[in-house]
């Protein structure tokens, strides 16, 4: 059944000069959808043409509407030669296909050329008339809403959560087709952009179909990725969580708008999904190759499972990271699986079967790991790949968890709000048959159930969790050299290294956690990237002290050869340094767990607990005065120094520079322990590329360099943002890559350059200026009187000013971008649709554009500009859950060339400021001088 | 299209199709040149560590963040290295426990941002509706205002000169003389030229035009009006005798001239605008000559002024003795203004014919005010003098100019 797509070209502005003789341009526009093309008249001799065209109407299948982008090309008319393209605009019309999202796309959109970047803007209006289609065999899935947000979107209520959906499509990469040898770079880039746009449209449509089949109407936590496999093809794959969402009537949700107290509406995953599990292969015959591999689970829990609808799903995975209180019953721990594959071994590269099978395998492994942890579901699930020539590592990770079966049977329950609970900390597995060695104690909160000594998860901190002190970003960085090899040998070498890397990352995380006196990690994200002669591992997480878990013991160092006196001395000085650091960190993160223990002193505590409690009292009293090695000897984390490696490890433990005062950082959505956010936020992307000038480095040497790089990067962020103090870097998301370098033979001639490059992208950093604790007390006054120094009213004054438009021309709508799923102190009133954009930029005049930095800087700025423009055209004023998924950069300075690919995604939304009484009369505000240099607004 | 018809900022080498043949698909994987230069003002990053070097370092915010201090360094034409040095001495490092590397990377980032913004700053109205940088309005205003702010020392050197390529070539001398970096000199000069070119073709009041087209503050718009006015009329300001005058003195005088002696002064909707002096008025000024050519009138004028001044100032004797000379000086300046050459010498004439004699007689500023007031007013009492309106229009400006210029 058809739909009617209508487009109107209104005007252009700031067009480039295409005719040197007159310094003007004779522009016209081609509007193309599918195979139909319309043209506007030529608007002669103007850089600001006014076409005011008629409505161009396309009558098309809704299947095409979902797959195809609307393609607008601006050209310069030439009487004697071929017309020159000025640039293109691709418009994804998907947001217009859902009745609840945007209704029209209208506004100024940047005209983009893959060689020249943004070249002026064009004003277009696009509408869609959709006819209802009740055909049950239809191929389209119009109306299914997509959200990148990994929690239930703010203005919706989840009626049902159906479960995991995934899809994968493959195509030949235009960059590797024979035709690429004769076409221009521009044509090749455009072919690629268009193809990926088509493929992601198709992917969304197919996932939509699956959702409809399951009875849902939306996909939450939609995660789409590209694998540029090179010769073997281009893969676009996506995972998500199918849900049935009900729109909340405005006003009813207003009670839970404060970010601190807000939690997504309760949802009730129920009913086995209609998608039948193909083979109920719950036998764990698949022997996992790597990953944290706990022994197979005890059959003890199986009975419990049978009453549980989640159990019947083929993959009981949830890409969500944030849940309503009470939904998570227990958390088992992080499960991950990796698999090394050779891309040149794919039999029919153009078909998705092989890759489907690969992922299937990995998912089965994850599922079995979760089972081993006594859990029936995996939450915070994500998948990723890293490719180096023909070797591809597929990774998946998530958090094994028990979900509340009561929730599922009885449907939607309004769980008891913000009350702290400790249930999710309790172990889901059998105490006497533990999957891995852990020290269990009784929960410090309820004193009834057992809890582990540490908890690692990939999800956000649950709202009901009681936390002591503040959280902080914890990173483990690891670099391993690897011999250069080809094919199978290479793959074997890599897969042999992987478990060791994971183990070492785990140890590092554990040590750093102890050093900060914390006992849980949230938002854990482990990235392993392969280079030609090295492997990189980077694990980031947010450490917190969960009140329900036992206090971590200290770190104790023992030497193996106690005979040597100077050696002993060395060890004891090191021990002292570690103890000092722990004490300092306790102060820094405000971790004083005693308080919460005291308040439950009256409750019956088992003897073992009591002794422990008393010990910790004494521990804290003398922690500063003397070096007391006896404290926590029983549960202290013992590090044995038996060789120089271990010494290095400890050294590196202590080299993590402390954060400057006034800064907080985390990689989760909310910073544990800080609740008073202002609405001022700023999102950044930073990219660094380093060249190692000597590849013959040892593991330790590389580790040191890698750690320094990460530390330097953080330092430079702190420096840049110093004017925003107090502020918190949230959702700090690091990505590393070791780009492949081909042409080995050439590089041999110049051994100086046989070096890998490290890319580090700390992407999507969000900086939120938050008041610190001291200022919290004044926050009440803040609302009534316009406080001078606080960033809050200042920000508002700015936005007021910006809406009061300059006399000349229409002002550009301010569009905020944030990797968070919400904007603090605001209310999201409408989701306008998913933003999923892919850009390629290439240059053949690298030096003239300011070198690689200049090139990438302007490209990223352009991408931001295009995202903002599209959001504004949809009628939105913010992008939430924004992320830069892909940023691939290649250069060839000898040829003065560079190319970069960027993929961004997010949810376009309309937000309003939280309440009217907060708004301070504009007259007062505009008279106020802006005091600080803090750029609060985004 | 024809090869080479790209806008200049995107002009790059055009690669013929054939050349790509053997470059694909690995056109980006090739050995790196050790000296891959960064081109265009942003120098190569210094290799700070023996084992690694930063190839690329970029930081982009959704809201473009700019450090006002670094912006000033950039405007002042500091190189990245110099700016880093100055910032280090300024003590930012101690404040934030950052290393020199961090500072360098930050400075480079900012410089890049400014370079990208520069194109927009050339037509400030674009800054408000461009999409590339999201800059809060008050920041935009700051960027523009600072970009168009100029050095008093520098502008004194080019004031009244033709804003031509020739003058631009001599900027290195100006730079050496004033101590303003050549880069900064060029920016300022180009600003003058740009404003001049834009307002040249516009109707209506000069200051208002500048303010609207360049979104400048009132004060800065007035200063630019003065610069445009001086450049257009080519007033001589470089003679040694005029060296003691600051730009602000001249700007004030220009303001007076613009608002009183130009066509726009009477009717601001007139076709022609504020840049040229009104021809008719200059012609009328010739009539004032009667004040010095008619002996009776001159004596009468002198006695009226002297009567009014007697006993009111210590310099009375000198005033009485010099009256005829001074009056001749002022009236002659008026009479000659139809001549373009003499218009150019307007300020030098004022100084030579009037200010210098008075200064050598040690008149105070008060004396000067007193004298000029009575000198102007007394002419009204002269019954044979019929050109009161022209006289007032002339003397009003002359009086305020001289008062402004009468200092050491």
How much is the average pLDDT of chain B? 80
Give the mean pLDDT of chain A. 73
Query: In percent terms, what proportion of residues of chain B is strand?
Result: under 5%
Distance between the termini of chain B: 63 Å
How many distinct beta strands of chain A? Answer: 33
Profile the largest sheet of chain B: none
The helix tally of chain B amounts to: 22
Uncertain spans of chain A: 251-308, 409-418, 595-635, 742-758, 762-809, 916-938
Q: H/E order of the elements of chain B?
A: EHHHHHHHHHHHHHHHHHHHHHH
Sheet with the most strands, sense and barrel status of chain A: 6 strands, mixed
Taking the alpha carbons of the first and last residues of chain A, their distance comes to 42 Å
How do the strands of the widest beta sheet of chain A line up side by side? 24-26-29-25-28-27
Overall outline of chain A: globular
Largest interface comes to:
A-B, 121 and 83 residues
- Tell me the structural class of chain A: alpha+beta
Class computed from helices, strands and strand pairing of chain B: mainly alpha
Provide the fold topology:
The complex is a heterodimer of chains A (938) and B (408).
Chain A: E1 2-13, E2 27-33, E3 36-39, E4 56-61, H1 62-67, E5 70-76, E6 84-91, E7 104-113, E8 117-130, E9 145-146, E10 156-171, H2 185-214, E11 218-230, E12 233-247, H3 302-306, E13 328-342, H4 353-372, E14 377-388, E15 391-403, H5 405-410, E16 441-442, E17 450-451, E18 455-456, E19 467-481, H6 487-515, E20 520-530, E21 534-546, E22 555-559, H7 565-588, H8 594-598, H9 607-621, E23 637-641, H10 644-655, E24 663-665, E25 677-692, H11 699-720, E26 727-730, E27 733-737, H12 744-749, E28 757-763, E29 765-770, H13 773-776, H14 779-784, H15 791-803, E30 816-817, E31 826-843, H16 851-873, E32 878-892, E33 897-913, H17 922-927
Parallel strand pairs in A: 9-11, 18-20, 22-23, 24-26, 30-32
Antiparallel strand pairs in A: 1-4, 1-8, 2-3, 2-5, 5-6, 7-8, 10-12, 11-12, 13-15, 14-15, 16-17, 19-21, 20-21, 25-28, 25-29, 26-29, 27-28, 31-33, 32-33
Chain B: E1 52-61, H1 68-75, H2 80-90, H3 92-96, H4 100-121, H5 124-129, H6 137-148, H7 152-158, H8 165-169, H9 171-178, H10 182-200, H11 206-214, H12 218-233, H13 247-261, H14 263-266, H15 279-285, H16 290-293, H17 295-309, H18 316-336, H19 340-344, H20 346-360, H21 365-381, H22 388-405
